[in-house]
Amino acid sequence: MSLLTTDPRTGARTDTGIAETTPAELAAITEAAVAAFGALRARPRGWRAGLLRALADAVEADREALVAAALSETGLAEARLNGELSRSAFQLRLFADAVDEGGYLEAVIDHAGPTPLGPGPDVRRMLVPLGPVAVFGASNFPFAFSVLGGDTASALAAGCPVVAKAHSSHLLTSRRSFEVLQGAARAYGAPEGTVGIVYGQEPGAALVADPAITAVGFTGSLSTGRILQDIIDRRETPIPFYGELSSLNPLVITEAAVAARAAAIGEGLFASVTGSAGQLCTKPGVAFVPHGADALVDDLVARAEAAQAQPLLNARIHGAFDEIRGRLISEGGARSLVAPAAGPDGFTTTPALLEIDAADLTPAATEEAFGPLLVVVRYRALDEVVRALDAVPASLTATIHSEPADADAIAAFVDDVAPRVGRIVFDGFPTGVRVSWGMHHGGPWPATNTQHTSVGVTAIRRFLRPLAWQDAPEALLPAELRDGPADLPRRVDGVLELAGA
Amino acid sequence: MSLLTTDPRTGARTDTGIAETTPAELAAITEAAVAAFGALRARPRGWRAGLLRALADAVEADREALVAAALSETGLAEARLNGELSRSAFQLRLFADAVDEGGYLEAVIDHAGPTPLGPGPDVRRMLVPLGPVAVFGASNFPFAFSVLGGDTASALAAGCPVVAKAHSSHLLTSRRSFEVLQGAARAYGAPEGTVGIVYGQEPGAALVADPAITAVGFTGSLSTGRILQDIIDRRETPIPFYGELSSLNPLVITEAAVAARAAAIGEGLFASVTGSAGQLCTKPGVAFVPHGADALVDDLVARAEAAQAQPLLNARIHGAFDEIRGRLISEGGARSLVAPAAGPDGFTTTPALLEIDAADLTPAATEEAFGPLLVVVRYRALDEVVRALDAVPASLTATIHSEPADADAIAAFVDDVAPRVGRIVFDGFPTGVRVSWGMHHGGPWPATNTQHTSVGVTAIRRFLRPLAWQDAPEALLPAELRDGPADLPRRVDGVLELAGA
Asked: Which parts of B102-221 fold into alpha helices (H)?
């Protein structure tokens, strides 16, 4: 039986012609990944950078078909999908640059010599790839966090083959993405098994349990994350599980900021809450607004009431959105400012606005609702916000809108906020995550479950481990660790040296 | 009731006068650690480097009393303990150097500006400390892997307070170590709670479960490691657990190496197997020796037969040593070459030598025996060794003794060995781990459970996480991330710059 895909704009279900991966197929896929890993280890860095660029080119060359597939399955707007595809190609190229540059290898050379503890041997260290990586894509990013997204790019950059698990909400997009990657990898001369894909929930679970898999990248719900972690905990050999799981992204607006620019904040906040129908892991889910800022709240209400309905990604998300909104009221004690109007199709909704006093904020009022929903939390003073933040789960981001006059209070406030998040945004909005060398997209549990990022160049560290060579003959060392001028930065006898030194 | 300590040289049990930590005491200790964490975050890097140096000075100043305490509890030789104490002070100073240098912060600045995806915000990233860390010391390193050891040094270097759990095999040493650290930290002006200690197994388990603890460093057995992991799995908030758990450290000697220097290899191997009574995590537990190398094996036999008995660290290790040796024969099919002579006291033993053919090597013949025991595996060709290595658990190290004539075969062999270990030693021995910038002391499961090291400067990464600042006002940025000349290396707009740039 083939798997079905659904168009959330129409509710129409289509037979994809894609069959669930059989156990025999899965075994062949992971076997090919293991073989590819061995072959990839022999290729130099420059070769791998070229592979990533070839993949980026192929993704862009297939833009029309990829976007069409995603349009038919996700309900996301065409402009958004085109932007996401560009972003995916950009990050493949950014990782190619990072591979060429070589700093990510953390190369260290300690020459043999006397030490305060006696003669020391020659020790050289750099990072090496883990092995085949399983990538579980997200429903909300059919490109950038899916088959051809950041986990795949960073794992391939590290030198790890990738086996993607196709998301059930965009099966056709996943297949097309895989075909593009596979075709480009073959054309480039990459070993078979450099990329693979599996379809279906059970085959996905079997993939995580497969002894050939050495790490798992996952972007999705906390509940599915827990299921995958349980599978890993039952493995004979535990492996790292990189989960990007859940985030409420509190946003705080000071009185001074309201006074200075309430209209701009209202416009930006509303766009950040409702962009992509609110289905972004960095969407602000709670906004702390001063009690005196009724005009700002009125503005948000007017915008929500005027908003058109947008389709959510799938029926499960739509159902959860309504349920959680109900609980935020019935259990969390929030008041409804704007009730969402659900479309008759079971997929579309208008935005929901809720309100609560900071003093009343409990964990029941801070459950993440994936979709266009914001809880406005009214407060009197920043120390009330600090106390209320104890009811907010640790998040990917926190955002602070303030004015220079607030500087002292905000400095102290930042100290309170920092341990709760992975990124602090000032006077802006957390959505629209920049893909760059320094971006950190991660946070304390339950935002993520590791000390790593899934966006930005340092995401590559997840799929690497250190290896040390002691007193190795020159010929047995990787090129990166041989004496003489090097094409990457290295720490030599404790001193960092730039490439070419 | 006070806890008892035992002198393994005499079996004498002494009342330490140390009481098990009560739940109320534990709560006060972790509360103080949380308070200290807040205070430490405000101190600059240079202050912390000074703290580490003050601790190193204090450890050396108390050398006589610390070594005397360890001598009374561990059965380790005085020279070894003095060397280990020097090593502990050295690594505190090495981490101080690393903190001053600042590269470990992985500072990145991406200025705002146009990108292929549109205007990008200003994003700056560096690593920040996790919070209070629990350190579980090892029985076999009362200094370097215990209360004042590498986990403590690297956690403090990161800016994390430490709560050590005193090892039951060296309670007096642990208490003295803590008093030295606490006294030096107070004298330096560090906040109370920068270091803490708990005594007893149940309080140790409660420490791991305590919500205040944000990471655990552990060096010890796989079985105890699993118990601690289970506690972590039941926590509401999961935390990283850095376990250095188990290692067999295979060593391979080629025919050419035997022909060139059998006597030196025999002497070095025997010393590596029996040093500190074989109670080192890097002790070679299996040595692959060519079938033709009878003289080398005879030499090992003669050395083992002539060796004096040495005390093991505690009765549990002694019991396990005998049991596991029995299983290596009864279940693993190994032949005894030299049976150990156990002393009447239940603590001392002479070395044990076993032998088996490579073709017969199964996991039952590769159980780690902590103590002076070596399984000699006889082989005919290197590909036989590669197959046999499948029966050897992944390890901290592998060691290869070869000659230049072996170069081609060894290159291929290294490719087979590398995925199984964290460090490859050439023509030397894996014990005597150099503490340096590049050392990696870690390996694939079950050697360790993470992609990190517990020896060397990069051990600090375990207790850090990234934090990003987006469009932050200059005054709210950490000093390390402000524009202008910097006292640490940074990556600015993708380009690595040295300090002072």
From this structure: 150-158, 171-188, 201-209
